[in-house]
Every structure is written in C-alpha cells, then in structure tokens.
Design a protein that fits this description.
169 residues, alpha/beta, Purple Acid Phosphatase, chain A, domain 2, five-stranded mixed sheet, 10 strands, 32% strand, hydrolase activity, Phosphoesterase
Length: 169
C-alpha cells in the first residue's frame, strides 16, 4: 500500500486570498492525507478542508487564534505506512535548523513546517527529512506560490514534488 500526501501551509485565507486555488483543491481531492502546517487565519477553511479531505493532520500557526488554537495542536505526530511524521508551524531561523530540529524531534522521520513561505527540503545528519511546502496563496519574496505532494510506502517517503501554483482565471 501507499499513501498520497498533500503538504501545504500559510494559506492565510481570507486575508491573502479569498479561497485556496482550484489547483490545490484538486490536489486535496486526490490526496489520501492532507497536511497543513498552520497559518489558516479563519476557522472556515479548517472546516472546509476537514470536510473535503479523506484525512487531515494540521497545526495552528502564529497568525491563528481563538477556535483554531482550541481545535488544533501546536505540534502533531502521526505514523503513516510506518513513517513517523510530525507537523509544526515554526522551526526558527534557517541557520541551525537541521541541528535544532534533530534535537527537538528525534522521534520523527519527517517534519513538515511552514511560517517562512519559503519551500525547504533538506535531510539532517540524523536522517530527519525537513519539508516546507511554501504558501499556495502568498509567495512573499518567492517567485511562485507553491505546495508539495509526496508518497509514503513501506515507511519511506518518495516522489516529493514541489508544485508551482498556476493562477486561476
């Protein structure tokens, strides 16, 4: 068996966009597991993503308050096909990130994070894979809005792909 993942973060709906791009909603429909690494801004998107996803694992971010913080954890951990996956919004500065995350999350194989809106894909010295999908709605200083997809099978992460969001017309 394998599990198709959709990784996203920093959606900032409705502040940065009225809704998620249609391309991302199609990816939600195709995914077995949707991972959201925080900064939702409004609980309505959480409700919609919960309703539409086969399975959702999510955390709150620094721009999330009230009901979002009541319903979501700061850090989430699950096992997917034998892969130990964690989700958190912030990991601190890019400098020293690998060592810091290896120390903070020694029990994980994969840590998905957000906050910077900058796609990130590295593996630490301890083997922890760090993935940031960027943002599908707010590119900030990046050339494009982005999200990630991947596949988990037999405890291994494969087919990690960064997707550029094509603007809806």
């Amino acid at each position: 068996m394998s599990t198709r993942l959709l990784l996203t973060a920093d959606t900032h709906v409705p502040k940065r966009a009225r809704d998620l791009p249609a391309q991302l909603w199609r990816a939600v429909d195709e995914a077995d597991l949707v991972v959201h690494a925080g900064d939702w801004v409004d609980v309505a998107l959480l409700d919609e993503l919960e309703a539409r996803s086969r399975r959702l694992v999510a955390v709150w971010g620094n721009n999330d308050h009230g009901e979002l913080r009541e319903r979501l954890p700061e850090v989430a951990r699950i096992e997917v096909e034998g892969l130990r996956l964690g989700v958190v919004h912030e990991t601190g500065a890019a400098k020293g990130r690998e060592e810091r995350c290896s120390s903070l999350y020694p029990d994980l194989d994969l840590l998905v994070f957000g906050h910077s809106h900058i796609p990130w894909d590295t593996t630490t010295g301890t083997g922890l894979r760090l993935l940031n999908p960027g943002s599908p709605t707010d590119r900030r200083r990046q050339p494009h809005c982005t999200y990630l997809t991947a596949v988990v099978a037999d405890g291994r992460l494969a087919d990690v792909e960064l997707h550029r969001v094509v603007r809806d017309r």
